[in-house]
Amino acid sequence: MGKSRLEAFSDGVIAIIITIMVLELKVPHGTNLAALEPLWPVFFSYVLSFIYVGIYWNNHHHLIHTVSHVTGGALWGNLHLLFWLSLLPFVTGWVGENHFAALPLACYGLVLFMCSVAYFILASCLASHNAELKQALGKDRKGKLSTLLYAVGVALSFVQPWAGFAIYVGVAMLWFIPDRRFERH
């Protein structure tokens, strides 16, 4: 099967995810800077989630650009990834509304962990039928490290929520630097 439908569908779902997240930002009741103060947790969680969606969109683009066709397994792997990404607006809102409390933050990390696992599954499905992608992915140390860090962040969120949050920010910063593996191949 050609890859264009998978790419177009994924781009549409990701655009909807971003739209849902931004719609959760409520307009403040007031005209001064003090009116914005109660909104900072919601806004900050939105910014982090927007960055994560952007990272996944960017890396998804590189994955799909590298392959010439997709299999049924890759279609299901892609849907698996989109499912977990689609939960980001919910956990983003929950974290922001509850000022980074332990359980919402742990659930946020769990969704990030599952996005990472789903991305790994999708990449594996695609690489199993594409030698160039398999070579570009290599051992995927960065991906495996990210998954491990998400798991640590989930556990830390229950003990020290800000430490868990710091890990989620750190992983985003790790991926914010463009992944050159695909460009080399």
TrEMBL record:
The lineage of its organism: Bacteria, Pseudomonadati, Pseudomonadota, Betaproteobacteria, Burkholderiales. One of its GO terms (cellular component) is membrane. It is found in: Membrane. It catalyses: K(+)(in) = K(+)(out). The chain crosses the membrane at residues 9-27, 39-58, 70-95, 101-127, 148-177. Signal peptide: none annotated. Belongs to the TMEM175 family. It comes from the Bacteria. It is a multi-pass membrane protein. Its main location: membrane. Keywords: Ion channel, Ion transport, Membrane, Potassium, Potassium channel, Potassium transport, Transmembrane, Transmembrane helix, Transport. GO terms for molecular function: potassium channel activity; proton channel activity. This is DUF1211 domain-containing protein. It holds the Pfam family TMEM175.
